[in-house]
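Exercise 7.
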Amino acid sequence: MAAPSNKTLKDLNGKWIMVIRSLLPSLSPSYFHPDDSPPSQNKTLSDDTDRILQMQGVGWFLRHAIALATITLTISEYVQDNLTHIDIHQVATGNIQSTEERTLDWVARDHTDGIFGTVKGKSRWVKLKDVDDDAFLKTGWDGGEDEEYVQGYVESVGGGWTADQNAAKG
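Solution. The predicted structure, written as tokens, is:
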């Protein structure tokens, strides 16, 4: 998801909208980016999520509904007891809602999600040079090896899949 230049990983607070702009050709791009409205992601500029969702056991109908849905993320990021917390409340077309709470301390926590089922997830601040020996996770970043990124690792309970992701401003 692209972010406005004034946003960093230390301040993700606000509303973020994921939308398929090609479905709304009559709206000018400025409709999505006025100063007083939430930033949006143009899904047509992102990779297709169908295959990854299929690998995670999400059925055909739900995968296609997700691809067409507008998703609004309300993110609250704060520091409590010297730990960064990122709480994400998601609302998709049809009022499908979920909330994900991440504490950046690399401690695994259970979470039950309506799409992915029960998962164990952990998140942390990490420098690129400290990411495990995974060349894929270490390539394509604008920042240097000493810049801090957010790493999230999720393991499906009973689903047989894992997801390891890094997020950075860039």
